[in-house]
Structure formats: C-alpha cells, structure tokens
Amino acid sequence: MKKSISQFTLRLGILTLLLGLFTFVFSLLFPDIHVTASYPYILVFMFLFSWAAFHITAKSMTKKISRFANTYMIINFLKLVIFSLFILAYAFLNKADAVSFIITFFVYYIFYSVLEVVGLKQLNEVIRK
Predict the structure, then answer these.
(1) Nearest-CA neighbor of 118 among 30, 50, 65?
(2) Does residue 115 contact residue 9 with C-beta atoms inside 8 Å?
(3) Around 128, how many Cα atoms within 13 Å sit in the side-chain half-sphere?
(4) 3-state SS, residue 110
(5) What share of the chain has pLDDT > 90, as a percent?
(6) Where are the alpha helices (DSSP H) in 30-95?
(7) Which pLDDT score, from 0 to 100, does residue 1 have?
(8) Separation CA 13–CA 33 (nearest Å)
(9) pLDDT in tens, 7-64
(10) Residue-by-residue DSSP string for 23-36
C-alpha cells in the first residue's frame, strides 16, 4: 500500500507540474484570454487536498468495504464544501478575477478528480489480490 501511495504522490506531482506548465504556456499563447494569476495557488491547494483525500481514503480501504464507502463519501462531501467556500471567498474578495479563477479551478478539479479515482481503482486492485 505504501508503494501505491508513493506512486500516487509522484503522479500527483507530475500532474501539478504539467497543469502549471500548460497554464503558463496557454497564457502566453493566448494573451487575450485572461488566466487568473492565482493559478499556482490553486495548484498547491488542489495538490494538498487531493493527496490528503487519497491518503485517508487509501487507509480506509484496508478495512471493511462499508468503511471505505463511508470515508470516500465523507471526504468528497468535505472537499465539495471546502472547495465551494474557497471559491466563494476568492470571488467575493476579487470580483474582477472571479470568472477566470472559477473556470481555472473547475478545469483543475476535473483533472485531479480523474487522477484520484484512477489511483483508488489501482489501489483497490492491489489490495484485493
């Protein structure tokens, strides 16, 4: 299991670097499209939450399946609430940058969610063998 968590952490780091690089290049290639200047902070925020969520959920996988299901649902509910509050607070404090921030956050959220689900699926296959 430690190997799977290490692999996920590596993939998460690579995804974070690639998204950061892609966003930077995108902002250079399309200067007319406003990209939020806060995208590095979003990436760090998403990295930390995704890693913590995966780590907690992975630990619950070694126990009963009902424990895993409960943990997974609680973690995702908490992420939804925390992410919503984060977005609302930023939008309230930075009205001019709110739309690009929300779009950037949403795009990143899709990528991180896919990586988390794939990582949990692979971990489940390792544990069930």
Answers:
(1) 50
(2) no
(3) 8
(4) helix
(5) 77
(6) 39-61, 65-93
(7) 66
(8) 26
(9) 999 999 999 999 999 999 999 999 999 999 999 999 999 999 999 999 999 888 877 7
(10) HHHHHHH-TTS---
Asked if pLDDT for residue 126 goes beyond 90, the answer is no
CB 104 within 8 A of CB 35: yes
Going from the C-alpha of 50 to that of each of 32, 42, 88, 100, 125, the distances in angstroms are 31, 12, 20, 22, 20
Tokens of 115: 């990586």
Amino acid residing at 110 = I
* Tokens 């309230």, located at residue: 92
What is the chain's mean pLDDT, rounded? 92
Helix 65-93, helix 98-128: angle, nearest 10: 170
